[in-house]
Amino acid sequence: MTLVILDPGLHMIAGHHFELDTALLQVASAFGTEGHIFGHRTNNPHLNDHPQITPFFDVLTHPSTQDPMMIDLDRFQTQNERLYNDLRRLSEVIDIEQSTILYATATFHTLTGLGRWVAEWKERPRQLFVLLPGHFAFAIEGGAGTLDQLFYRYGFSRFPSGGDSRVRFLTLSARQAREFSMISRREVERAPYPVGLLDRLSPSAHETSSGRRRVLTCGSSRDSKGFALLPEVIRRVTAKRHDVEFVVQYCPTEEVTPDAIAAAGATVIQGYLDRDSYHSMIRSADVMLLPYLGPAYRLGTSAVFAEARWFGLPVVTAAETSMGDDIQADARIGLAVRPEPVAVAAAIETILNDYPRRRRAAEEAADAYRRDNGTVRLVELMLGRG
Fold first, then answer.
1. How many domains does the chain divide into?
2. Are residues 225 and 84 in the same domain?
3. Less Cβ around it within 10 Å: N or C end of the chain?
4. pLDDT band at 382 (very low <50, low <70, confident <90, very high)
5. If residue 343 lies in a helix (H) or strand (E), which one and from where to where?
6. Are both 183 and 209 inside the same structural domain?
7. How far does Cα 161 stand from its chain's mean position?
8. Helix/strand/coil for 3
9. Per-residue pLDDT reduced to its tens digit, 295-325
10. Residue ending a domain, choose from 141, 163, 191
């Protein structure tokens, strides 16, 4: 048996796509199962030279959080057609019948093409796991739903009716699982949240050396991640106390520039980090600040949130998100507040004012989280070991 990861969104050797895909292969190898990754056909030489990665897909897929009524219909059709044609070529390069396949990630831009391929299977894999996106933006209202939901529903309808025991749909938050199940009229499972290679790191490791409490925010600087709130939050907190420092690891986009964040007094780390540097940065934090906004995170969750929970870091995030739901269910994780600078700054101060107790509580919550999640648990699910 071989574990095959199909990831059209993998186009560089940095970030959570590369981290997760390669970690899954390492864990599978430890279980005696070899694997391979098929990513985006890119000109990146580092990716193209990787021995476990084959550039394969023409389509580069990323979830969309734009206005659902502005979906580009030509792009929708083209993306799905390209994916379908790529998948038809898969039998030329792998032994499908001896493969367990993970498709990551099935946005509505590709779900139709994937379902069409499954419906026409001539060779069937041992199992196909379809990972649905972490950023699903728009809620069902009034029955019919928004346009992107209709595209998801159409994509699900292309899979064989009545379901297929060899196809399992996965997603990474309970709220997503419920809503995708409603849209698809199929079972969508909440999968164990993978955390790359964090499984192998000591959860108690802590590397702060500055003597001040470190508040960390990291990720791409999209509006949906609340980066525009950071300058005022930083100014409000640091105006009241001098025992705190803000660190912002920042993958620039056109939506937010780093100038205002740096001018407010934060240490800015710009660009992607290698795996060891990224893990070291996470472990150096005392508080994780994730002021993520709806609608993108109303259902979806965040890999950074999972990493913070894994290490038992208190988290400040926005209410009315799936992460806020988790905190409401277990207050030991941190605080979920309105995504407004005053409320976010007050939440940070609340945690800092009672830090030893709040850190112990977050670490207690992490024990159960690590038991039920992690890359090892996801591989066990896919290989039938759990």
1. 2
2. no
3. C
4. very high
5. helix 341-353
6. no
7. 29
8. strand
9. 678 777 888 999 999 999 999 999 988 899 9
10. 191
Do 374 and 195 contact (CB within 8 A), yes or no?
A: yes
In a domain, 380, yes or no: no
**Based on the domain organization, do 175 and 237 belong to the same domain?**
no
Quickly tell me which residue has 């500055």 as its tokens: 210
CB 166 within 8 A of CB 130: no
**Euclidean distance between the first and the last CA atom of the chain, given in angstroms as a whole number:** 17
Q: What is the per-residue pLDDT across 175-208, written as a single tens digit (0 to 9) for each?
A: 888 889 988 989 999 999 998 877 776 665 455 5
- What integer best gives the mean pLDDT of the chain? 87
**Hey, CA dihedral for 190, 10, 202, 376, is it positive or negative?**
positive
Residue 59 within any structural domain of the chain: yes
Q: What is the DSSP string of 166-222?
A: TEEEEESSHHHHHHHHHHHTS-EEEPPPP-TTGGGS-TT-----SSSEEEEEEEE--
The letter for the amino acid at 66 is Q
Any idea what the CATH number is for the domain that residue 156 is in? Answer: 3.40.50.2000
User: Alpha-carbon distance 286 to 244, whole Å?
Assistant: 10
pTM: 0.86
Nearest Cα to 383, choosing from 27, 21, 20?
27
